[in-house]
Amino acid sequence: MQKYSSAVIAFSGGVDSTFLARVAKDVYGGNLLLITASSSTYPFYELEEAESLARLLDLKHRVIVSEELEIPGYSDNPPDRCYYCKNELFTKIKYIADQEGYETVFDGSNADDLNDFRPGMKAKKELGVISPLAETGFTKSDIRYFSARYNLPTAAKQSYACLASRFPYGEKITKEKLDRVGEAEFEVRKLGFTQFRIRSHENLARLEFINSEMDMAWEKRKELSDICKGSGFNYVTIDLAGYRTGSMNEVLTEKERGASA
Q: Are 46 and 160 in contact (CB under 8 A)?
């Protein structure tokens, strides 16, 4: 970070970007700007939390609009969907950084992300966005540990991914579907679950829970069913394989992964 005199951070308010912002504050002081993108894939409660965290950190913060559903082909949900999203987002953030004299743009990708299928990494590299956490080998567990040392409220926060990641590739994404998933996950979180996903397969909701909360999921299966059906799903299932990041990528062939790398 000390190679640069100022920076903009793509700030989601998640575990990684919040830790990155806190460390960057010590390096840049007032020469730092956090930018959060509002869109249909970013639930209102996450935006509110990002705004709250920026105030807690006492850092300059700006909310911009980056509506992925307006990107041609994005709603068709191809395997490289994330590339088009990140390309638009980072292009907008880079423009602001250039116009306002910030030397570089950071994002919160960590070392674990390098082992997953993430087409957005290609857009980041093309636009020169830097990932300090990934480049210095910080894993998610490292970030949680040091976040706790900084007394950051995000130390134990659920890992987050945009709502578009809840849909199998090829299923058309609409605002209505995004709202349905976002609403259901908001209500499920109120039941006390800490790390989970609701994957949307047309009218079927497939719920993924971490192993330590699988028993609680079974005990609260009626509440979970009521929540999902109340949000618009017809059928509700619990995935016996449990929660894992990028579960929608499991069906991709090596060729499909390579074409998006």
A: yes
Q: In terms of Cα–Cα distance, which of 221, 224, 164 is closest to 188?
A: 224
**CA nearest neighbour of 23 among 127, 108, 140:** 108
- When pLDDT is cut at 50, 70 and 90, the band that residue 81 belongs to is confident
- Dist CA 136 CA 201 (whole Å): 37
Assign domain 7-149 one CATH number from 1.10.390.10, 3.40.50.620, 2.60.120.260, 3.40.190.150: 3.40.50.620
Distance CA 179, CA 199 (A): 13
CB 84 within 8 A of CB 122: no
Identify each DSSP E strand in the chain by its residue range.
Answer: 7-10, 32-38, 60-65, 104-106, 196-201, 204-209, 235-238
**How many C-alpha atoms does 210 have within 13 Å on its Cβ side?**
10
Give the model confidence (pLDDT) of 231-253 as tens digits: 999 999 999 999 987 666 676 55
- Asked if residues 160 and 14 have their Cβ atoms less than 8 Å apart, the reply is yes
pLDDT digits (tens, 9 = 90+) for 193-225: 999 999 999 999 999 999 999 999 999 999 999
The structure's pTM equals: 0.86
